[in-house]
Design a protein that fits this description.
Layout lengths: L4 H10 L3 H18 L7 E4 L2 E2 L23 H8 L5 H28 L3 H12 L2 H9 L2 H26 L3 H18 L3 H15 L4 H11 L1 H10 L9 H5 L9 H7 L18 H22 L26 H23 L2 H13 L17 H23 L6 H10 L4 H19 L6 H6 L3 E2 L4 H8 L5 E5 L4 E2 L9 E2 L2 H4 L10 E3 L2 E3 L4 H11 L4 H6 L2 E7 L9 H5 L3 E5 L3 E5 L11 H36 L1
Parallel strand pairs: 4-9
Antiparallel strand pairs: 1-2, 1-3, 5-6, 7-8, 9-11, 10-11
Helix pairs in contact: 2-4, 2-5, 4-5, 4-7, 4-17, 5-17, 5-19, 7-8, 7-9, 7-15, 8-9, 8-10, 8-26, 9-10, 11-26, 13-15, 14-15, 14-17, 15-17, 17-18, 17-19
């Protein structure tokens, strides 16, 4: 007798096209509802997020400045594209696409690893997009980190498809598409170093040792921009300030504790970058509902056998979108690995917030170059998202199956229920019940965090720069780096809202802007890597001479008015400079005399540009190749 599986669901009215159209459309709606205030004119300017109309391919944009290359290759990408497309539009497009990809990727993951019906896929979408992690990272301005977050279900899918292809003994032509998909996903995640690390951990744990070398080679290639910049500049190879561990440790939200906050996908270090609902009892309610929903499907995810597609492998509507026939154990092994990875992604950051855990991390960042990537441990909670999405989708399936069995007056055998929801006897009553459970689950996920909608309660909105910024950029027509006053990296402008924002000058101006990298966090200062920038800032604040600025490679000084920050004795230095532009917001000065050059060598710039080109090839070529090869594979099997 032919399996009904998802077929009975599609036959009941969802339609075969609904297997992708409903989750894709629903994910798009969620993304647009969240970023709504950004869709009009203006620029994202909130805490760490700085989008500008135009940016430039400076040494800092290539990661070759004094500071560690944390914004590579994102800054170079914007520098290359913004002369053609407004930089603010590019950032908005990436953010919307990332949120959409996170939701739709979770839906496809649930469909391929669980055989989830459309209703279950919509629940998976909701878990992936509508959660405290997304809200808090938006408020912190980590739009590019969300691109890495969005790539996680896709790298998991690519890893699973590679395993299937290997088990079937496919040749290189058949496996090229799956490896290309992995390469493209790595590159998308690698918009920031943290995203690349998240994708690498997910993939390498799923692929196993036999394919470790190939996956590592792709990961290194996708990470070439920041790895090359680190090697050439040497900035990121130095140990980090151990004070950053306590400053960036995961934070306990009210009534939840650190572990509860992380398990609820919250707990960011910055207590100001949280939605209002997470400061009330709604945080407890939302976390409890999320964990109950995840727990309802945990057993199914861990124990359900793979869908038996042998009987209907020639039926297009029951086939996985990859065109693959699952092996008896592969999906279960991958699901269990994702659950284990998700558990570690919650437990380890919680341990990292304990006194002895912070002591271990402080030792690492003080003695191991590059370990500074680990200081914001709450970032890595992102690794739990694929497992949470799978469990939530499975929970609705399992409950619907129990409901239909009980309604039919048959005994609800527990083990049979857990496996049959995945095996193919998902009957019409169960399909109807699954839609009801999906609506209940979605409401339970959305309502306690309702203020994620419309820019997290309007906090994520478009800002408008004064015209003076464009005038200053045009006036900078000579050599030398730019020093900025007041001191510090963060600003509060009249046009940027109440939250502090990173100084937009480094992304707005055509020459390198010196930044110390010092971060004020929780009442303490975390030291940065910009030694020359710190020396120049000290010169300005202590009234140093124009000649000293010139010897340190400074050709320009920009004073940003109306924002708090130290000015010290800088008037003494400014009196020695030549005014170049002034308005109510900005004043630009030129440093007289010859300027010593402190820029990166042409060889280093060429090497960095080649590394960025390799990343771009993987991003575009991987996505195009994977799409073409996958369509050919499906057409061949149809």
């Amino acid at each position: 007798m032919r399996n009904v599986g998802c077929t009975s669901v599609t036959a009941s009215g969802w339609g075969q096209r609904g297997r992708w159209a409903w989750p894709a459309g629903y994910s798009a709606v969620l993304a647009l509802v969240i970023v709504g205030p950004l869709l009009g004119p203006g620029y994202l300017l909130l805490r760490d997020a700085v989008s500008t109309p135009r940016s430039y391919l400076t040494d800092s944009a290539l990661g070759l400045g004094d500071a560690a290359p944390r914004a590579v290759p994102q800054d170079a990408l914007l520098a290359v594209l913004s002369p053609v497309v407004d930089g603010g539009v590019i950032v908005k497009a990436i953010l919307v696409f990332a949120l959409w990809a996170a939701g739709y990727g979770a839906a496809v993951l649930a469909r391929e690893l669980l055989g989830a019906p459309v209703a279950g896929q919509l629940v998976a979408c909701t878990v992936a997009v509508w959660n405290p992690y997304v809200a808090e990272r938006l408020l912190q301005g980590h739009w590019s980190l969300l691109a890495g977050y969005a790539a996680l279900p896709w790298v998991a899918l690519a890893a699973w498809r590679i395993r299937l292809a290997a088990d079937r003994g496919d040749g290189w032509r058949e496996t090229a598409g799956t490896w290309a998909g992995l390469a493209g996903s790595f590159a998308a995640a690698g918009l920031t170093p943290t995203g690349a690390l998240l994708a690498g951990v997910t993939t390498l744990t799923l692929l196993g040792w036999r394919r470790f070398a190939g996956a590592t080679a792709l990961l290194v290639a996708a990470s070439a921009p920041w790895l090359t910049a680190t090697a050439l500049s040497g900035a990121g190879s130095e140990p980090s300030d151990p004070a950053g561990i306590a400053a960036f440790a995961a934070r306990a939200e009210p009534w939840l504790g650190t572990l509860g906050s992380l398990a609820g996908l919250g707990g960011i270090w910055n207590g100001d970058a949280v939605p209002d609902s997470r400061t009330t009892l709604l945080a407890v309610l939302g976390t409890a509902l999320l964990l109950v929903i995840v727990a309802s499907g945990l057993r199914t995810v861990l124990t359900a056998a793979d869908r038996d597609t042998t009987a209907d492998r020639d039926t297009a509507e029951d086939r996985d979108t990859s065109g693959a026939t699952a092996s008896p154990t592969d999906s279960r092994r991958v699901r269990r690995t994702l659950v284990a990875l998700g558990a570690l992604a919650i437990l380890l950051p919680a341990l990292g917030a304990t006194p002895w855990g912070m002591h271990v991390l402080e030792w690492l960042v003080a003695h191991v170059p590059g370990a500074g990537l680990l200081r914001d441990t709450q970032k890595y909670v992102a690794l739990a998202m694929p497992a949470y999405a799978l469990c939530a989708a499975a929970g609705g399936m399992a409950l619907a199956r129990r409901f239909s069995i009980a309604g039919a007056g048959r005994p609800a055998n527990e083990s049979h229920t857990e496996t049959s929801a995945h095996h193919g006897d998902f009957t019409r009553p169960a399909a109807s019940a699954s839609r009801w459970f999906a609506m209940i689950f979605i409401a339970a996920l959305v309502l306690p965090l309702l203020d994620l909608a419309w820019g997290v309660g309007g906090a994520v909105r478009a800002a408008h720069y004064p015209a003076g910024w464009e005038q200053v950029a045009e006036k900078i027509d000579g050599p030398g780096d730019i020093a900025v006053l007041p001191g510090g990296m963060f600003r509060k402008f009249r046009y940027s809202g109440t939250a502090p924002v990173l100084d937009p000058a480094p992304r707005m101006l055509p020459n390198d802007v010196l930044q110390t990298g010092e971060l004020p966090v929780r009442g303490r200062t975390v030291t940065g890597e910009g030694k020359r920038a710190q020396k120049v800032e000290n010169l300005l604040l202590h009234g140093g001479s124009a000649q000293e600025l010139a010897r340190n490679g400074v050709g320009w000084v920009l004073v940003e008015h109306g924002t708090p920050g130290p000015l010290g004795e800088s008037k003494t230095t400014i009196a020695q400079l030549d005014p170049a532009y002034s308005d109510a917001d900005l004043t630009l000065y030129r440093v007289p005399g010859p300027i010593d050059q402190h820029s990166a060598s042409s060889t280093h710039r060429r090497s960095s540009i080649v590394a960025h080109a390799l990343w771009a090839v993987l991003l575009i070529g991987g996505a195009v190749t994977a799409t073409v090869m996958r369509r050919k594979a499906i057409a061949t099997r149809t």
